[in-house]
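A note from the maintainers: we've had questions about how concatenated examples are separated. There is no special marker in the raw files; a new sequence line simply starts the next protein. For clarity in this README we add a label.
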Amino acid sequence: MAKGQNFERLMCRTLSNWLSYGTDEDCLWRSSNSGGRATVRGKKGKKTQGHCGDLSATNKIGRRFLKRFAVELKVGYGEMSIVDVFDRPKKRRKAPKGKRKPTYRDWFRQAERSMDQSKSKSWMVIHRRDRRDALVFMPVDAFTYLNLHNVIFNYLSYLRGNVHVVGFRLDELFAQNPKILDNL
């Protein structure tokens, strides 16, 4: 089984437990083809309810969460670092088609497309590199509306053009009461 699928399952259970105050590990599950079905159908002008991004809801708690956030889950990419968005050369040799490695910016764009497709209020990208703790990235507006700027002090802020993203440790989000989601 691919490690991405294992990570998606783990994140579904972990997010579900957080959202339900530990009473239900099954509020969220992997969406069909990790959101690929919604993407393909969207290109044809068709809508696929509840399958945008990497997560789909299995109950009311999950649906309420996904109305607030479209979520993209990424695991691995050990050679990548969020610092790449700052220090990667602007002009780099183009990789052959199919060999190009994704960037954080690509992931942020993907999450934004999922948000647009799903009509969610915001998006988040959860990324765990190999042998590292998971990080969560979201637009600064969501970070502010959730009032996280008053309780999380170790974070990265990335601003490029009209994209302003904040990243921080996922366990710091889970230390908050999920009631904060009502602010968004």
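[label: protein 2]
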Amino acid sequence: MDKRFSWDQMFVFVLVLMVGLFVSSPGSSASIRTSALPAETEDDIVFIHHSCGSAWLSNSLHVALLAKDYIDERNDITYGTDVSPDVGRPDSLSPTPGDRTNMNHWILWFNDYLDGARHHGSDTGFNRIVMFKSCYPISNVTADGAEPGDPFSSAQTLANYKAVYRHPDGPGHTYTRNSDIYRPLEDIFAQNPDILFIPVTAPPLHYAPSDATNDANAQRARLFNEWLKQDWLAGYDAAHPGLNNVAIFDWFDVLAYPDDHPDHPNRLREEYGGANGNSHPNSIANGYSTQVFATDPDNLLDRAWDAFVLGGSTSQKTASSSLAAYGQTITYTVVIRDIGAPLTATLDMTDEVPYGLTYVPGTLTATSGTYTDTYAPALYWSGVLTPTPYVSVSYTVTVTHLPSGTVALPRTNTAIIAAAGHAPVYLQATVWINPYRLYLPLLLKA
């Protein structure tokens, strides 16, 4: 028997599905992203890449990026893209910077063209996310090399690759090229806390019909990537606590056989194209990569953005859940960062719990400053942002509004942060209370 929809039934079914987006069962954790900055200044991304990046974008990454509520414009720097050097800096990648994405080019990119990349393609604001990757040839790392390494050298050695990211004598030390001073990437990143930098490791090389590399060279590629995402990133985060403006996407590890594979260690997996004589990841690889990077529940991009916003240059208010029923509790967290006032200026926060939610006495806390719940439902905090780079204020509420019918009610909670001589900052988080569960029929086509 063939079960079919009429057009009227189809409309009702789609409408119910749309409503279901707002009334799904409560209890899941959600981070509601808000910001103290105007929207046009916070949600552009630029991706510096070549052919592997283009194929990945065309496959699924482009759609996944633009689906993010914190990304408005997606911009590209790739083959044929010309970018002007920053004021006072040499045109070191001329004539066409977009043609150059090898490892030794990144120190030139971020010293000589960062402002250009920051604003490339942005109709308004700037690219708050700068994502960059080299192509698969750099995964053929031919030697360990000798420390301290040369970040400008095209020789593909471990020592040279590491020198791009850190100076062997430590932070603050510089390199010289043609009388121009160059800082390693870790110093550049730290001096630009309003940008989330996402280095993407290069894909692995194929193994058949002829091997594009050898075991030792492929293993060195893995060793560099592990050093970058473990040793180097851990050191960077420790030196800059709360900054959270660098996230490493180890694309090599996503696509490669493991180091202990008996036949093809650290090569492009067969299912991803490793046996077809082409090191470009295939469509299966690109689709899976998008899941890991951008669409899985625990994807890297969302985690990196949340950490960046909480530890970056913006203030934020979040709720522990976007849905809650009568009697359930919600914890709100307000993270206060520099709002344009001097760090020594006194900031005052007022947060009034809206109708339908009741403050739980004694739950208001803050990492510094003074606070009081004496006048609840109005809650107050006062303090300064020095020496700490941010202050976190949190409290808990209970849903006390009785369910009414089948409509979930939105409750928007607003924290107002003010400093003398500066415009107030409004941070909001919305929670839907008393969602109604719908059980939809399962329709089968025989």
